[in-house]
Amino acid sequence: MATELSNTKICDKSFCEDYLLLSPKDVTLWNLIMLLLSKNIGHRSFIDCPAGTTEESFSRRFVIVVSIVAQMVLTLLYKPLSWVGSAIEFLPNFMDANGGFLDILLNLLSGKLVLPNKESPEFLTVVGLLDIRRDLDKTIKHEDPRYTSALAVMAAKSAYENAAYIKDTVEKYWKMEFLGFFDCWNDYEEDYTTQGFMWSDKTGDSELIGVSFRGTSPFNAKDWSSDVDLSWYELPGIGKVHAGFLKALGLQKEQGWPKDIQQDKQKPYAYYVIRQKLKERLKNNPDAKFLVTGHSLGAALSIVFPAILAHHNETELLSKLEGVYTFGQPRVGNHKFGEFMKDVLVTHGLRYHRFVYCNDLVPRVPFDDSDVYFKHFGDCHYYNSFYEGQVLPEEPNKNYFSMFALIPMFINAVWELLRSFIIYYHNGPDYYETYTCRGCRLIGLLIAGLPAHGPTDYVNLTRLGSPELFMTSFVS
Fold it and tell me: How many CB atoms lie within 10 A of CB 473?
């Protein structure tokens, strides 16, 4: 989602009070050294900000440099990562499409070899291969405090898959109504970068509508670049919000955030099309509520969505919002944004469950330096590698990079790998970990905290966590 500076400078920024937009394109080592040495950041060709902008703090300039370097590295890795991801997806899906290794040989000899179809309801992305579960936990009933969170995480996980897979999962496995899949336009990227789906749960006393945003694809360098990008816009009365997340949700290049736009059916914007679908559905059932959920990047979009609803004074819709459930959510805005969102959540009595599993890297980015930069708000529902939970003001080791945490993180990564072989025997067949998942656990021995971001542990914590902790959910 990183946008080239040449594009951002021609965009209308009158919708915001201030902005800082970074572009890693054509940045040299000398440019980075000069950024560290000079407070006049507005003079840099790779930083778009109001004329005369300065940054007195060396530590903040250093964090900007780290962000730019990380984006540059990810840009170089874009194609290699994409190739690796495609290779990992191909083999298991190829074997499944042909019925296993022996059948592949028979099909090859008979000329009936089947290639995987990415639009098939059986095709799995890398995320799906990490965790193949599709059924909801039948032991978690509606009266269980874990029910909504357990449903939300399965929706957040399913959002990574294609439309046919999601529809099949909702209707055949969940026995719920599929309301639609959305492939949405990003005005800045000029591409369809934002996906999600909606469903309806009528299995309880009243209808609960769900909105799930797709998250960071493991082998998509653009998604990871967005997570580490420090670019932001400051919205009037709201605060500083991550620029990449705003663009993904539907920020208009020439108009900013108008309350209403003329929708183009060929290029739908996530915020506007989902808002309209919710209004139509809720009009038919005034007693219904809706929830918003997502994992990783999808989690960030899940909390920005109600922020823009509040920005547009959509009080009727907000009164129907049951809660926001995020898993592995990166930081979205600054302290002012957090205070704004606390007020929105308290005013409308909304639940906000921000789940963080153990050493997950993503909730610890972008860097939390001070009130000026990105911060989490509300309680953190934190779970360790034994799925023991606590409700904390902030996740431990909040910025990930710590010499004191390094050794414990790698020890924990070893334990998570060992656990992947025994959890099946301890908790039952629903907790069997695939070979793809175990391979991902091996990566944790090199980059502790990266495998912890996968959906497997988030599904497990909603099923194995203590029900009492799921009752603590309102922001105060």
Answer: 22
pLDDT of residue 9: 42
Through-space distance between the first and last CA atoms of the chain, rounded to whole angstroms? 33
Q: In angstroms, what CA-CA distances link 20 with 63, 187, 252, 282, 309?
A: 13, 18, 17, 38, 24
Q: Per the confidence metrics, is the pTM higher than 0.85?
A: yes
CA dihedral 236, 241, 247, 251 (to 10 degrees): -10
Q: Which member of 137, 453, 457, 473 is catalytic? A: 453
Known catalytic residue: 296? yes
Angstrom distances, CA of residue 348 to CA of 85, 342, 472: 42, 10, 16
18-36 pLDDT tens trace? 999 998 888 999 999 999 9
Q: What does the alpha-carbon distance between residue 95 and residue 20 come to, in Å, rounded to a whole number?
A: 48
Q: What is the C-alpha separation between 237 and 226, in angstroms, rounded?
A: 24
If you ran DSSP here, which 8-state letter would residue 333 be given? B
43: which DSSP letter?
G
Instruction: Evaluate whether 339 touches 377 at the Cβ level (below 8 Å).
Output: yes
Q: Determine which one of 231, 296, 302, 420 is catalytic.
A: 296
Cα separation, 375 vs 371, in Å, equals: 7
Closest CA to 89 of 111, 110, 133, 120: 120
Query: Which residue in 360, 368, 379, 457 is the catalytic one?
Result: 360
Tens of pLDDT, residue by residue over 192-244, are 999 999 999 999 889 999 999 999 888 888 888 887 888 999 999 999 999 99
| DSSP character at residue 433 | P
**Closest by alpha carbon to 457, among 366, 376, 359?**
359
Q: Is 110 a catalytic residue?
A: no
